[in-house]
Specification:
The chain is an alpha/beta fold. Helix content is about 35%, strand content about 25%. Strands 13-12-11-14-15-16-17-18 form an 8-stranded mixed sheet, with helices on both faces. It has a 7-stranded mixed β-barrel with strand order 1-3-2-6-7-8-9. Strands 4-5 form a two-stranded antiparallel ribbon. Helix 5 crosses helix 14.
Amino acid sequence: MIQSCELRITQSMFDELFTHLFPGDNDEHGAVLHAGLLNTTQGPVLTVRSVILAEEGKDWVPGTRGYRRLLAPFISKQARRCRDEKLVYLAVHNHGGANHVAFSDVDLESHERGFPALLDLVERMPVGSLVFAPNAVAGDIWLPDRRRLVVDRMVVVGARRTELRPAPLPTARGFEARYDRQVRMFGSQGQEILGRSKVGIVGLGGVGSILAELLGRLGVGSFVLVDPDRVQPTNLPRLVQATGWDAMIWLVRKDRPKWMRELGTRLASRKIDLARRVILRANRKASIDRHFTSMEEREVAEALKTCDYIFLAADGHRARRLFNALVHQYLIPGAQLGTRIQTDDDGALVNVHTSTRLVTPTSGCLVCNEAISPMRLRDESMSDEMRKAQRYVDGDDASAPSVITLNALSASQAANDFLFYLTGLTNVEAFQGNVQGRPLDRRLRFVAPRQDAHCPDCGREHQSRFGRGDGNPLPLID
């Protein structure tokens, strides 16, 4: 059985490619894509790093066996570049039609003739071909051992998510009655998309806990939950559905012996288990993968690679650095969210700040926007004790105020952003930056993201992470 794979591309790259392939002349045109490769538990994924358009009459000419073809010097140049940068070579052309597309017999014969030589040229990297119709794509990918993959879907990551497949999926066959009111807004097809989706939530504290319930009630099908902490008594006012039993209040009271308090701490519910309980009460069919550890462990990164969207609701800068790498290396959009309540030395309230920052492969990353502090990274790397103290706001619970109603502002904004993105409802002109709330003033502030072309994460220079799949090492704890 031939295995399937997924292809991811940013909206801007897709628009550039689409305009070239379909200029309105009803003819065939060609291009080459360079893509990263990542292997996941759900199968291989290709991440488009660059689009190379074939020039008519120079690189793209009438064929000798087929209708059109790429010339050998152009192919050789692009294949050598893929070899040098450890990228996947993908030849591209288009056919007629609209919603269905497939390779012709001539196309497949050309793959049989040409791909073995290309595999030798690129040296241990896959090669392949894609064929497009306006609303469809098919792919034939050859691995170095001559096994073949087909492209099951192309995910276009932009202000809203678009999927292209070789043929349309069957129409949604209905939905559970519980979702009737929301289906009236985004349709049964939208509900089915939510049911197929997989999200990662890193940090299940005050903000992440609310987010888990919102996404569970929307009907999201699969979750990856990450948090290294257990429920504490001071968490109870802000963790959804948390009880005194979760915090083992009767064991951890200050008047208890030390051994009893330590026992209570060990027996307290893990935040990931509390979040699982919350989600399953909303949606018993949800699949939930839990990780009782920090985000920077390899097993967590492997799980997050399979997600359609990642929410970062933890405050550590090591977690921010890894989250930023995942977004840009694997083309997985996400959001960083949180709440800050500032007080002065006397405890008087100074400022309340909520933040929901979209972090997408093309919107300007956390590095560009100075949201990752080198000093904090250094401090968090000094020792296990220091890392535990600074990885999450709970580490300094006594001096970091937190209120559930304020956390709900960030969580609801992030959940709505995800909902509209996934179901295709986001206005293409929608603001793509950081939405900051100022509840004391009843105001919102919209902070446009900055982007540096030389950024090591989101830039397009040779050494950047962008679109490289597994080609670059992640900043993990080894």
